[in-house]
Design brief:
The chain is of the alpha+beta class. The protein contains five helices and seven strands; from the N terminus they run βααβββαβαβαβ. A seven-stranded mixed β-sheet has the order 1-2-3-4-5-7-6, sandwiched between helices. It starts with a strand and ends with a strand.
Length: 173
C-alpha cells in the first residue's frame, strides 16, 4: 500500500537515492543515457523545497519514501521541479498519484496553473503529462520564468530540441 503525504525534513536524505534510481530508466535511451550518471539534487536543495510545503513523497508500509514530487510556488503557478519514482516502483501509478496530489494542492490554493519542463519525446515525460491535461507550450506561451528554466537545462547539457515546457491550466469557479 502506497500513501502520499507532504514531505518532511527527515525525508530529504532519501530523495537523492530515489532520483538516482529513477534516472536509471534513461539508460535505455542511447542519447540520454548520460542522465543516469548525472548529478542529483543535493539534500540541502531537497530540504529547501520541503520547507516550502510543496514537496510530496510516496511512502510504503515502513513510511520510507519510494518516490517524490518537488515543486515551488511562483506567483499564481505551482512549478514542478521534479517527479521521481524508484526504478523498481515505476509503472505502478505512484507518479500519477503524486501529480494528482500536486494538482489537488494547487486547486485548493486557487492557483491558476501548474508548469514543468520535460522531454517531449520520452514516453514517461511529456506523453505522461499530456494524459493528465498538460499542454506543450511554444516559446512565446512559456513565459520568461519557464524559458529561463529551459535555458539553464540546455546549459547543463539537455538537448534543446528534445525539451519542452508544459502547463496545466486549472479551471477556477
Amino acid at each position: 500500500m502506497t500513501t502520499i503525504r507532504i514531505a518532511q525534513e527527515a525525508d530529504a536524505e532519501a530523495l537523492p537515492d530515489i532520483e538516482q534510481s529513477a534516472g536509471e530508466a534513461y539508460r535505455g535511451i542511447a542519447e540520454l543515457a548520460w542522465i543516469a550518471d548525472d548529478d542529483n539534487q543535493t539534500v540541502e536543495r531537497h530540504r529547501e523545497l520541503i520547507a516550502k510545503g510543496t514537496c510530496w513523497v510516496a511512502v510504503e508500509h515502513d513510511d520510507q519514501p519510494v518516490a517524490f514530487l518537488s515543486a515551488e510556488l511562483h506567483d499564481d503557478t505551482l512549478h514542478i521541479w521534479e517527479l521521481a519514482v524508484r526504478l523498481d516502483r515505476q509503472r505502478s501509478g505512484i507518479g500519477r498519484a503524486l501529480l494528482e496530489k500536486a494538482i489537488e494542492h494547487a486547486r485548493e490554493r486557487r492557483l491558476a496553473a501548474l508548469t514543468l519542463t520535460t522531454f517531449r519525446d520520452v514516453i514517461w515525460n511529456a506523453p505522461f503529462y499530456q494524459k493528465l491535461g498538460f499542454l506543450m507550450l511554444d516559446d512565446a506561451l512559456a513565459g520568461e520564468r519557464v524559458r529561463q528554466v529551459l535555458r539553464r537545462e540546455v546549459e547543463h547539457g539537455m538537448p534543446a530540441s528534445r525539451r519542452c515546457a508544459m502547463r496545466l491550466v486549472l479551471n477556477q469557479e
